[in-house]
Specification:
About 30% of the residues lie in helices and about 30% in strands. By secondary structure, the chain is α/β, with parallel strands linked by helices. The protein has a seven-stranded mixed beta sheet. Helix 2 packs antiparallel against helix 3 and helix 3 crosses helix 5. The longest helix is centred in the N-terminal third of the chain and has 13 residues. The radius of gyration is 16 Å and the shape is globular. About 45% of the residues are buried.
Length: about 220
């Protein structure tokens, strides 16, 4: 691993492990998720000028009006999606800088991820290739339509806030699967939808803060 990837000082492995210990004290209990977070150099997913802040408990800007979620939110959503069970096929709406995508790749067999902003996806694709992560399929598209040809998914995660979930996305969730997403306007909460053989059940969870989910694609 290169020095840029392994980190030094405020981006070192020791700093990463301190972040994992902090997440434990904040209630994250899934050791599979914590191991994934401990193994990935979060600082390479942000601009170099912000690398020293990558392990703080804050969200950070990644350009294009987007952010990388704070470590607790990434861990909590991953923990909810996994539910202490192995994950097969997962869909992510909103690739962003690829940090959540990379975490999912560590805890699921295969990850399909959609990003609407073309230049952001190009940078993320290069970053994930540098990390030699092989089980990710990226697509430049409107995430509101999901990834029908790869459905059904055992888990769906949305990394931008919506006021409602399109039925087309719910239909792509496998029976027994879970969808984790932020929902709201001024006040946002994490929501979890579980699909059973008879329908869907919804649970409202912690308050969060995400950028809005938008339709359409940005090519340049």
């Amino acid at each position: 691993m290169s020095v840029r990837h392994s980190g030094i000082g405020m981006t070192s492995q020791r700093t990463r492990l301190r972040m994992v210990e902090r997440l434990r004290t904040q209630g994250i209990a899934d050791e599979v998720v914590l191991s994934a977070i401990g193994s990935l150099p979060r600082h390479i997913f942000v601009e170099e000028a912000l690398a020293s802040r990558a392990y703080e408990d804050v969200s950070l800007p990644i350009n294009y009006g987007q952010t990388i979620s704070n470590p607790w939110t990434v861990a909590r959503m991953s923990e909810l999606l996994r539910a202490n069970e192995p994950l097969g096929k997962v869909l992510e709406i909103g690739t962003g800088c690829g940090y959540q995508t990379a975490i999912l790749a560590c805890i699921a067999e295969k990850v399909y991820s959609i990003e609407r902003i073309g230049p952001l996806l190009t940078k993320t694709r290069i970053r994930l290739q540098e990390l030699q992560i092989k089980n990710i399929h990226l697509r430049h598209a409107d995430g509101l339509h999901g990834f029908a040809e790869a459905a059904p998914f055992d888990g769906i995660i949305m990394t931008a806030v919506a006021t409602h979930i399109p039925s087309s996305l719910l239909e792509q969730l496998n029976i027994g699967g879970r969808m984790v997403f932020p929902k709201g306007t001024q006040k946002q909460n994490l929501y979890m939808i579980e699909r059973t053989s008879t329908g869907y059940s919804e649970t409202i969870l912690e308050e969060v803060n995400f950028v809005p989910l938008l339709s359409g694609v940005v090519k340049k």
